[in-house]
Amino acid sequence: MITRDALDLARTKGLDLIEVAPTARPPVCRIGDWGRMKYEKSKREAEARKRQSQVQIKEVKLRPKTDEHDMNVKVRHAHRFLEEGNKVKVTVRFRGREHAHHDIGADQCRLLADAVKDVGHIEMPPKMNGRLMNMILGPN
């Protein structure tokens, strides 16, 4: 249909000529109420945003010398975070002479990962980044 005829038809019905596919040859349009269409689209987008869940990254900080009881507290925190559906970033900070024992930090990471393996898995294995060793756990 010619654009001028389509505009005349839309005006006689008291509606708008809405361009649906501008890149198509010829462009595709339809007759409808622009305000109502915009309102319904915003409602659909709001409903989609309401249903989606955002995964956050929670952090658990350790040291190579973190003792058993403190480690159990960190394990409980990581377990809770993973049950909620969040990712957990495990950070081991090294200071001074501790830099000579990166294997102890990796063992701490593996210990925590083994303790929460029923609710999470390792997404990124332990890796040194300056003074920090990082590992990321994701929910199952």
> Number of DSSP helices?
4
Strand count: 6
Uncertain stretches of 5 or more adjacent residues: none
How is the main sheet built? 4 strands, mixed
The CATH topology of the largest domain: Translation Initiation Factor IF3
Provide the structure class.
Answer: alpha+beta
Rounded mean pLDDT is 92
Number of domains: 2
What value does the Rg take, in angstroms?
A: 28 Å
Tell me the series of helices and strands, N- to C-terminal: HEEHEHEHEE
Distance between the termini: 55 Å
What CATH architecture label of the largest domain applies?
Answer: 2-Layer Sandwich
Superfamily at the CATH H level of the largest domain?
Translation initiation factor 3 (IF-3), C-terminal domain
**Considering DSSP H and I runs of 4 or more, what fraction of the residues is helical?**
40-55%
